[in-house]
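Cast an eye over my tokenised protein here and flag anything odd:

===
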Amino acid sequence: MKTTPDTPVRPRAEQDLYIEQNYWQQQCLGSLLSIWRTHFPNNVALIEEDTALTYTQLEQHVLQRSAGLQQLGLKAGDHVMVQLPNSLDFVISCFAMFQLGVIPILAMPAQRESDIAALCELSNPVAYIVPNSYLGHDYIAMAERIVSASASIEHVLVSGDMPTGSSFTELSQLDSSTPLQTPSIDPSSTALMLLSGGTTGTPKLIPRSHNDYYFNAKASAELCQLGEKTTYLAVLPIAHNFPLACPGIIGTLSQGGKVVLCPAPGPDEAFPLIEQHKVTHTALVPALTKLWLEAKQWDDTDISSLQLLQVGGAKFSPEQAQQVPDVLGCQLQQVFGMAEGLLCFTRLDDPQSEVAHTQGRPLCDLDQIRIVDEQDNPVAQGEIGELQTKGPYTIAGYYNAQAHNQTAFTTDGFYRTGDLVRKNQAGNLIVEGRIKEQINRAGEKIAVAEIEQRLLAHPNINEAILVPVPDAHLGERSCACIISSQPVSLKEVHQLLKEQQVARFKYPDQIISLSFWPLTAVGKINKTALAKRAEEEYVETTMNNVQTVPYFEKTISIQSAPAQLAPSISELSNNPFKAVYESKSAWSVGIGKVAELYSDGCEITLQQNEKTTQFSGESFPCLMAQALQSIQFDNWRLYGVAKFELASVFHGIQARTEHDKSLQLFVPEQEVRLESNQAILRALNESDLKTLEALVVKADTSCVQADSIAALEPLQTPQINTQYKDEYKTSVAKAIEEICNKQYQKVILSRRIHVPDSICLNKSFRFGRLNNSPARSFLYQLNDFSVAGFSPETLLEASSTGYISTQPLAGTRALGNSPQEEQQLREELLNDTKEIAEHAVSVKLAQEELEQICEPSSISVSEFMAVRRRGSVQHLASRVCGQLSINKNPWHAFQALFPAVTASGIPKREAIEAILRLEPNRRDWYSGCVMIVDSDGFMDSALVLRSIYRANNRTWLQAGAGVIDQSKPERELTETIEKLSCIANYLIDDTALEEVES
């Protein structure tokens, strides 16, 4: 097979030199497996979750995949778009194509339709390989759209189960035992194509030959001293050059080592794999390294097997570099390179100062580098200039990019990297920046020109410039600087890019509006000035430098019990925003809203005084801290709710929720705080304070009607025992099967029961509170939905000093119909091994979650396996406490604990995925939480269970039961009935109430 005309080739003399000096070993990548199998037949080669393949088994899988691809009609020289996460299917499919001379084009899982469509237009692939879904994204649906627009794609191959009726092919069904007809492949021909970072809309395709790529991987492995005892953890997306072959997967396999495939790069996923498989080597980008360093402050997972951490992909600060050996307990190696070729490494015997402060020196003697000024003249020793390079594994040109190659390469064949570097006395390079128009956001490259062009599609944006801004967490964040005819929000920009199918990491993190551009002395737009202004405006939005508006206060005496007075106050108000929250002996009532804060889990919006401010580009707890600092009211209290689906963002299942208000909080216009015999009234002006006082006095007087409510006959809720009974038992049985298959340990599955819309939530709440003993109770109406209930446990209690606690409940029995039966059921509960085991793992998980955000020595279990009466049931209850670490806020605790283990399962991520899969409806508010939050850091958050819900003209109840391997579908159904009774037995019909009052 010959190299295609669209792929530039090195001069023949250079190729002969590389072969003569044995840099190129004339081996095709597809033939390597048989060589490796001969040397390391029984060594484990690859591990993904519970599947481990030896070198012999790996070769067999690749041969079967190759045969299947060949039978499909794929032949040498064909292009195949590959967009797979870290998986066995990725490795097996790529090596199968190497054997056939088929050229895989390695796209990133994070790329979306606009990128893939452009790459398909450039490369004309005959096939497209995708997962069915990954991190919440539906790749099958995206592939359908891609195929409809691409004439060249004949086959879509899917890793994972396929939906019924799909015309696509599962990869696992493709494999064939038919003998492979191995074609003759020229080792100097293209083996695969990597993607460039790209300075325009579409990434360039980087053609890597069999010869140069094998040298790239093998020489890197030898420099890093890999061997048969090496265990390499592939953490970064393996479509990147770094984890694939620097030395990465191919380099590790060349030395007989073992590769463990990690599904996501966070410490929660990676640390347990390091401990389990005794990982010795891995590679990260700086942003992830910072995250690992922070996580290790609280995580006690044993990662002592780790010997070498490679860090590359962006500039790594010396301060963080110096932390790696002490914090992570391993040696650091800085790696600077590019998918186009050149690799620089600090050496294993370099002094620590060199490792911390430089990015290393070239991999091999035949790597040629020069550092030049703007006129391509060499700079003096130690001066900064552009790095240019060529060598045995650096490309001679991009695929199908003749015009671009004229400027990207010099006339004598050197690649213009666009990197600004200088060389120190030891010969190591120090990277100072880039001259290309590109933003390096957490290791992902954003083409400035692409986003600027896309921003102009907004009808109100006249001009747009995207600039990089230094960022402590991302390395660089992107700021969209615009000149517009009307105000344009960051949220509008994100929606615009979402509609254009742009990858999420390319969305601007910040937006600033200008009336004219700042100019340099020679009349060019001053991007340095824009970046400086972006920094200043970002600081202004995150600092609490606003003038706050005070509340007027008044204290009055009351005669009624707060439990009856609080909901009565709410009922008398006709404001669509109001909330009642019971915390211990204190009751709070908020009426109206002067500020609203809401989030989809990714970004946060604050609306106040007709002004809207968006916060994005940071972690959720940091964004919340910034937003709360911007609230313009003194000593505020927030009332709000969080939907269960917010958990899917916190646990990396999806990037954001479908609903913009999955977390919704409001600052009230008026507020009442009730304790014993007094009410503290608060309003923003004296007139509203007088109005509020009259309302409270009226409600206090009217509370004598509580006796008539207590005397009412509650509604007989229909079908509480039978509604969706069979569907629920089927879901439970499926969950038990998945648990027995080790997919997760425990999951809470729920069922929804529809009830008449004539039920009065307010009066049902008042009647139910007379007959319930909850940990918290609440009655919230936020415009278009309402929820009222009696929470059996708190998700999070945080004091103003940062002391927090959580109260996991697990294990349930009814109270029975007499004290004797209750005692009998209590003894049964305390001796039920299934319930005890279920409770113990919940407490253990709560401890582990607090370890992420608390001082380790402060964590304690202050109460263990007490029995708490909650309505018509009793539970096993424990309390886990701790002091927040100095760099954490209550929202770190909220993110760590949400959703409650009582309502999700163990492990949480897998349990949440099971819930999304096995329950027929979105949970929305059920098993989310309600909360109050104060300006001094106090937070009280209760799990939303034992509640009645109303939205979209529908009213319903919902209850669940914990499912483990010992569960029985009939028993879990009974448990839902017991829990539903806590509120179903006290529902008051508005019609019946009107008859009593008349």
In short: The chain has a mean pLDDT of 88. The longest strand covers residues 461-471. The chain has 31 helices and 50 strands.
